[in-house]
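just leaving the lab so this will be short. below you get a single protein, a line of residues and a line of whole numbers that encode the local backbone shape. id like you to explain what the token line says about the fold, in plain words if possible. thanks a lot i owe you, the record is right below:

…
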Amino acid sequence: MAFTTTTRALVLGGGGITGIGWEIGVLAGLLDKGVDLRGADTVIGTSAGSIVGMNYASGTDWEALFTDQAHAGEHEPVIRTDPGVYEGWIEAFRAGAGDPEAVGAGFGRVARKYGASVDAETRRAVVRARLRTTQWPANMRVSVTDADTGRLELLGPHAGVSTETATAASGAVPGIWPSVQFNGREWIDAGMVSAANATLAAGHDRIIVLAPMYEGHAGIPSAQDDVARLNDSARAFLVIPDDASRDAIGPNPYDPNRAQAAAEAGRHQGRANAADVKALWG
């Protein structure tokens, strides 16, 4: 008799500090209803999701982390995107013409042209405050973008890179946070081309995607588009912010003063979505 094994993946997208809060809240709401996704064969995190995933997969006390969102402003500076940097982002999308690697390389040029609005020491302190582990969970993967080629790569426990370095690179938003150097390359935010990178979970049978930022840009697919593609060969379920969560998140994803509200709204969503998530997850 042949036996088949069902593989499961949890995908956590990017979305700034409010995205971190929202994803923590959604996962807390699921846990409230007895839905625990930490047994996923693979957890894939992009940018904000790399922080959340690293903490979640490592078994962090989730209630304590949820409570900590009320204090995000104590270690997170309020960031606003410089208009020139924003124009650079638009140009990267335009010049890339829907080619993910070309867009990624364009964002690499933005990183080199504008530098960072926050210094490297401040960035390291922020990442350390966000992380609750220095040990790689075996099932955790972090997406990063090569700033020169635009190529997307997944880092795991055997990449020879610390959890701090990997998550700092995955969230190195060009023009805001400093890019990260390792393995002789420069790395930037993997969420600039696709906020969720949901298609990285292809090959798994059941996939849950949390995407605080879900819209497509200039030929780059939205999270909904990616999940639709996944559903051609797997069972996938997407959670994006509802109206209440969007109001809580607000217009600036880098505002730590909204992290608590985003987490609370996310928790309500997690509870509301628990039955559907459980039905798919099995």
In short: The longest strand covers residues 140-146.
